[in-house]
């Protein structure tokens, strides 16, 4: 498996729908136990119940997905892409943190790509 997107908790969300084109997914229930871990195929849609946590994980070809959530003030965190927290860490820190060599760190860093987050326009009422 490749690089994960940060886990999303849906405590403020009534419902979250994820459509994944390629990659894998892991869902953890309110009791902390894994309720789903699977590789998804194009066309798979799944619903994440409130208070469950989801992690989307890339495969060798990357990860393509979109999510629909029902909250007026969503908060997103990503481990990859333009806003990645990994960009703040030097290659040496990543190597030491994960106890890997420069070749593995380089492969890890090369897998990071861009993401986009779209919000509907605010209500003008």
Short description:
With 125 residues, this protein is α+β, with helices and mostly antiparallel strands.
List keywords for this structure.
globular; 125 residues; alpha+beta; Jelly Rolls; six-stranded antiparallel beta sheet; single chain; 2 helices
Structure description:
This protein is an alpha+beta fold. The chain folds into two domains: 1-72, Jelly Rolls; 78-114, no CATH class. It has two helices and six strands. Strands 1, 2, 3, 4, 5 and 6 form a six-stranded antiparallel β-sheet that branches. A hairpin with a 5-residue loop joins strand 2 and strand 3 (34-40). Helix 1 crosses helix 2. The relative contact order is 0.23. One of its GO terms (molecular function) is nutrient reservoir activity. It comes from Sesamum calycinum.
> How many separate domains?
2
Structural class: alpha+beta
Cα gyration radius (Å): 16 Å
CATH architecture grouping of the largest domain: Sandwich
User: What name goes with the CATH superfamily of the largest domain?
Assistant: Jelly Rolls
Q: How many strands in all? A: 6
Query: Helix count, per DSSP?
Result: 2
- Note the overall shape: globular
* Assembly state: single chain
Poorly predicted tracts of residues: none
Secondary-structure element order, N to C: EEEEEEHH
Looking at the structure, the CATH topology of the largest domain is: Jelly Rolls
- How much of the sequence lies in strands comes to 25-35%
Q: Main β-sheet: number of strands, strand sense, barrel status?
A: 6 strands, antiparallel
Helicity level: 10-25%
Instruction: Using the coordinates above, name the CATH class of the largest domain.
Output: Mainly Beta
Distance between the termini: 46 Å
